[in-house]
């Protein structure tokens, strides 16, 4: 009962103020910080899939943290469906790795996520999946890199958690130059403010994913997650039909 009452107060700021709980926002922020730290420590396990039933190929470590966290926040962790996010370590390696996995694991669905500048790689993979869209999908960002399509205030929030200042010197959105991409901005700001490098991209992506609210998730991220889930379900029709029967009853 106490948990349910606490949840009601957390959702209703006016009610919290009316009963004298004037620090509800501070408590909520601290609660989210603590929860983020707990989940961040579990990050490696969220992508540990020994026998994948689906693969998501990405260009870098930010996506490796972001996609499992976002899927978890949406209520259905990728690991629950046996989906592993695989870092290809750059766009230039993705077509070769896609071809390799497609040949070695012909029954496993694969979804690829590419940055905006990976037009040649996108076209190459598109040619390889032609006529097999029931097993494979390719998503290309409409703008920049994965970091560029994330809400800036959430990305800045994650940077402040990952690279805290000894004194009150938080990184702000105003520190970012609109003419530069997020990664270049982050490198410059972190060096200027913290004398450190942007070297925790998987944890950064994970923290951003946990902070995203409904309506803040980039459409390309939702498309990749939804495609992977749908393709894995479609590759196991018996399991899918059993799930529908259960829901119907």
Q: How many E-type strands?
A: 4
User: Could you list the spans in which at least 5 consecutive residues all have pLDDT below 50?
Assistant: 240-249
- SS strand fraction: 5-15%
Overall pLDDT: 84
Describe the global form. Answer: globular
* Element order: H for helix, E for strand: HHHHEHEHEHEHHHHH
Strand order across the biggest sheet? 2-1-3-4
How many DSSP H or I helices? 12
Output the radius of gyration.
20 Å
Question: Termini separation (Å)?
Answer: 29 Å
Question: Which structural class best describes the helix and strand composition?
Answer: alpha/beta
Measured as a percent range, the helix fraction is 55-70%
For the biggest sheet, the summary is: 4 strands, parallel
Task: Describe the secondary structure blueprint for this structure.
Elements: H1 2-11, H2 13-18, H3 24-41, H4 43-46, E1 54-58, H5 61-74, E2 83-87, H6 94-104, E3 110-114, H7 119-129, E4 136-140, H8 152-162, H9 182-194, H10 201-211, H11 219-234, H12 237-248
Parallel strand pairs: 1-2, 1-3, 3-4
Helix pairs in contact: 3-10, 5-10, 6-7, 8-10
């Amino acid at each position: 009962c106490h948990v349910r009452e606490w949840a009601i107060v957390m959702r209703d700021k006016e009610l919290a103020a009316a009963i004298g709980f004037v620090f509800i926002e501070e408590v909520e922020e601290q609660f989210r910080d603590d929860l983020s730290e707990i989940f961040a420590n579990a990050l490696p396990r969220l992508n540990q899939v020994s026998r994948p039933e689906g693969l998501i190929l990405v260009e870098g470590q930010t996506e490796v943290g972001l996609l499992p966290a976002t899927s978890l926040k949406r209520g259905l962790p990728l690991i629950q469906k046996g989906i592993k996010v695989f870092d290809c370590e750059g766009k230039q390696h993705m077509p070769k790795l896609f071809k390799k996995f497609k040949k070695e694991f012909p029954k496993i669905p694969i979804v690829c996520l590419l940055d905006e500048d990976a037009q040649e790689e996108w076209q190459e993979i598109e040619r390889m999946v032609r006529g097999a869209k029931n097993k494979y999908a390719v998503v290309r960002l409409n703008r920049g890199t994965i970091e560029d399509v994330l809400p800036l205030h959430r990305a800045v929030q994650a940077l402040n958690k990952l690279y805290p200042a000894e004194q009150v010197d938080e990184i702000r959105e105003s520190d970012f130059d609109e003419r530069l991409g997020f990664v270049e901005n982050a490198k410059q700001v972190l060096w200027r403010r913290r004398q450190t490098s942007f070297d925790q991209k998987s944890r950064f992506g994970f923290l951003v994913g946990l902070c995203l609210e409904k309506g803040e998730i980039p459409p390309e991220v939702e498309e990749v997650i939804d495609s992977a889930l749908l393709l894995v379900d479609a590759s196991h029709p018996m399991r899918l039909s059993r799930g529908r029967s259960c829901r119907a009853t």
